[in-house]
Automatic annotation (TrEMBL):
Gene3D superfamilies: Aspartate Aminotransferase, domain 1 (3.90.1150.10), Type I PLP-dependent aspartate aminotransferase-like (Major domain) (3.40.640.10). One of its GO terms (molecular function) is histidinol-phosphate transaminase activity. The modification N6-(pyridoxal phosphate)lysine is found at residue 208. The gene is hisC. It is an enzyme of class 2 (transferase). Keywords: Amino-acid biosynthesis, Aminotransferase, Histidine biosynthesis, Pyridoxal phosphate, Transferase. InterPro entries: Aminotransferase_I/II_large, HisP_aminotrans, HistidinolP_aminotransfase, PyrdxlP-dep_Trfase, PyrdxlP-dep_Trfase_major, PyrdxlP-dep_Trfase_small. CDD domains: AAT_like. It comes from Hydrogenobacter thermophilus (strain DSM 6534 / IAM 12695 / TK-6). Its EC number is 2.6.1.9. Pfam families: Aminotran_1_2 (PF00155). This is Histidinol-phosphate aminotransferase. Pathway: Amino-acid biosynthesis; L-histidine biosynthesis; L-histidine from 5-phospho-alpha-D-ribose 1-diphosphate: step 7/9. Its cofactor is pyridoxal 5'-phosphate. Belongs to the class-II pyridoxal-phosphate-dependent aminotransferase family. Histidinol-phosphate aminotransferase subfamily.
């Protein structure tokens, strides 16, 4: 009795392999000091876990609205932005209208569309990992999708798409979701558009700034758009501990996060420089906290060689146009050094 839509899906893959240095999931390498952990433990101990949490997460929303400089009414919270991507895929247009996104990009856009049986309009990126505007406009004319997902910066390629191209695509009448999961590393945003237009929303998340375990995603939209999306939110989708800990992290411990983010930005630029100089390696420019790179040796084998040296990165070489590519998250200086050393050593040991 299970729908063919669901039977045709494969389970979501994440990297669970153990490794000394894990640079595969774009997490922030935040190390909380003991006092901070103690404080969190104290606050968590006060939670009446027999009680439901605040269904609207008002206190957390207050902190988030201040943080993003928007009103509380502009926000919808999700159990990660994954959940918000799913909600948007249900809410925007009817199921017989299509969903547009460039590929390769974040897998949830495809998964959500498939789950709902919606037509997928997938257009390969150009050589520079930017939107292929001509091909996109042609595909949009042919299939009239109603919803566009744009990862900005794009995961797994790293850079932001050109703003003008996004605006041009939106002009075709698509409801445009700008997924700014890596905003803190790019500082580029469509927030103003999301606050002033009915056809644009922005997604943010706490996952890439040190709180992936809390599962808090944020949709920012005009009040009336946010109001509609909020209707379909599952009640209590943000757990009590997540509400309490996220609030604490974004207030009392935010300086720790800011410091770590700026370290990662510096390290990203260093890593890019070093990779650029390495023979047989071509890194792609990144506005995020990870770097995509292509190597002259088979990616599957390089991935294993790195792992044998204790370093786990993400193998993205199976994705369209990413043959020979791996994606490395930017970690702490010593983790990045371990990665660079393992990479150099692996490449040396490859016999053509
Ligand atoms: C990591 C990531 C997310 C975050 O998803 P969460 O569910 O909030 O953890 C969303 N979009 C993109 C493009 C990402 O890379």
């Amino acid at each position: 009795m299970i729908s063919i839509r669901i039977k045709n899906l494969s389970p979501y893959k994440t990297e669970t392999t153990q490794a000394k240095v894990r640079l595969s999931s774009n997490e922030l390498p935040l190390r909380l000091p003991e006092e901070a952990k103690q404080k969190i433990a104290q606050e968590v101990a006060k939670i009446p876990i027999n009680k439901y949490p605040d269904p609207e997460a008002e206190e957390l929303k207050d902190v988030l609205s201040e943080h993003f400089g928007v009103k509380r009414e502009n926000l919808v919270l999700g159990n990660g932005s994954d959940e918000l991507i799913y909600y948007l895929s249900i809410a925007i247009g009817e199921f017989d209208s299509g969903v547009f996104y460039p590929i390769p990009s974040f897998p949830m856009y495809q998964i959500s569309a498939r789950m709902l049986g919606r037509k997928r309009i997938e257009v390969p990126l150009n050589q520079d990992m930017d939107i292929d505007l001509e091909a996109s406009l042609r595909a949009i004319k042919d299939s009239s999708p109603i919803l566009a997902f744009l990862s900005y910066p794009n995961n797994p390629t790293g850079a932001c798409f050109s703003r003008e191209k996004i605006e041009r695509i939106r002009e075709e009448g698509l409801f445009t979701v700008i997924d700014e999961a890596y905003f803190h590393f790019s500082k580029k945003s469509f927030l103003k558009d999301a606050l002033s237009r009915e056809d644009t929303v922005v997604l943010r998340t706490l996952s890439k700034i040190g709180m992936a375990g809390l599962r808090v995603g944020i949709l920012i939209a005009k009040e009336d758009v946010a109001y509609e999306i909020n209707k379909m939110r599952l009640p209590f989708n943000i757990t009590y501990p997540s509400q309490v800990i996220a609030k604490l992290m974004l207030t009392e411990f935010y300086p720790l996060i800011e410091e770590c983010v700026s370290t990662v930005i510096k390290e990203r630029d260093r890593l890019f420089q070093v990779l650029s100089q390495m023979e047989g390696v071509k890194p792609y420019p990144s506005d995020a906290n990870f770097i995509l790179f292509r190597s002259s040796v088979p990616a599957d084998r390089l991935h294993v060689e790195l792992l044998r040296r204790g370093v786990l990165v993400r193998n993205v070489s199976y994705m369209a146009g990413l043959e020979g590519c791996l994606r490395v998250s930017v970690g702490l200086p010593e983790e990045n050094d371990a990665f660079l050393e393992a990479l150099e050593d692996s490449l040396k040991n490859f016999t053509p």
